[in-house]
Amino acid sequence: MEVKVTRVTKVFHTKTERVRALDEVSFLCPSGKVLTLLGPSGCGKTTLLRCIAGLEEPDFGEIRLGERVVWSKEKGVSVPPERRGIGMVFQSYAIWPHMTVFENVAFPLRVKKVPRAEVARRVRAILEMVQLSGFENRPATRLSGGQQQRVALARALVSEPKVLLFDEPLSNLDAKLREATRHELRTFLSHLKITAIYVTHDRAEALAISDEIAVMNQGKIVARGTPKELYFFADDPFVVDFIGRANFLKGTLVGYDPDGFALVRFPFGVLRCVGQGFPLGMEVTVVIRPESFSLSGEGGNVLSGRVISAIFTGEDYEVRVSLDENTVVLAKLEATFPTIPQPGETIELRVTPQWCRVLRA
Ligand code: ADP
Ligand code: MG
């Protein structure tokens, strides 16, 4: 079921200040898709989820689930949370420690007075889906973090919601388990074909799990696109920076070459870049992702510089290179090169013009 949020605004009043947590937020999440709201802590993600779930009352705007208006200031509609058909998974899991796995998952059905036999049948089916069959009688506290998280997911799913909301559900897991769970969740959600709105501040999680990402900052959605669109083509420096690591270089646009690449001059030299329609002489920002650099390759830009520091990450070498007095870039270089670059060494970084972009913003 699609979710449509129109101009939702929420202001919190505390003793000392007014916080505009949501500032006319609008978006549509198509039916059966996973939309992630990605943004820094405090940007309004949880507030937005709570408004959709009905746990928070907006000040203005409208929220639709499919054809049904569940909240509207103008129409005076406010459907209570339990009648919105939404399942929610929280960061804290919020599972009950004194109950067994079965009882935790059965709880929403018991509240609705579903007959015993049907409860048993549905709980078993859901537990199988989240791969927790056989754990029915385990006290919830005697589960690993990842298993507890799956109990929370099962409990959210057991009422057969049309929409699932996730609020940073992986943030209590350790790094390794979090990475594994990303795969599981992505596979699970795409098989389930349920509409899901997923909140996180973790860009890797957002890139991995989403069909589309809406980037939030200070109560507003500032960009929207598929993970690849945002990673490779976002124009807003905040978005470029938030969704991955990036080098921002300020230079002057001095011309265009016959292939249509923009020529941007820096103190360390001229780079060929993707960018069209900028006037000559304009001060521009060029963005290059660290992994776009290489030590080999022909026909691209060559940036000569001095290594400041280099570390081995296991996946690659991360090298900071000084190009001139005021410019240091971060490059992620394939660790297959036999030796790690040494501080003080001069190296030539190569990058094709396609991965040097003049930002429009
Ligand atoms: P996020 O989930 O992105 O970290 P939140 O939605 O929790 O952000 O919060 C957005 C802003 O609203 C923050 O500045 C936060 O301090 C404020 N806020 C959230 N809930 C309340 C509340 N109940 N009372 C006052 N301010 C709140
Ligand atoms: Mg939050």
Give a verbal description of the structure.
- The chain is of the alpha+beta class and 361 residues long.
- The protein has eight helices and 20 strands.
- The strands form four sheets. A six-stranded mixed sheet has the order 7-8-9-3-10-11, with helices on both faces.
- Strand 16 and strand 17 form a beta hairpin.
- Helix 2 packs across helix 3.
- The longest helix is centred in the middle third of the chain and has 18 residues.
- It is globular.
- Magnesium ion binds next to helix 1.
Please give a quick description of this structure.
With 361 residues, this protein is of the alpha+beta class. It contains eight helices and 20 strands. The protein has helices at residues 45-53, 101-111, 116-129, 145-157, 175-192, 203-209, 227-233, 237-243, and strands at residues 3-13, 18-29, 34-38, 60-65, 68-72, 77-78, 86-89, 163-167, 195-200, 212-217, 220-225, 247-256, 262-266, 269-273, 283-288, 301-312, 316-324, 327-334, 346-351, 357-358.
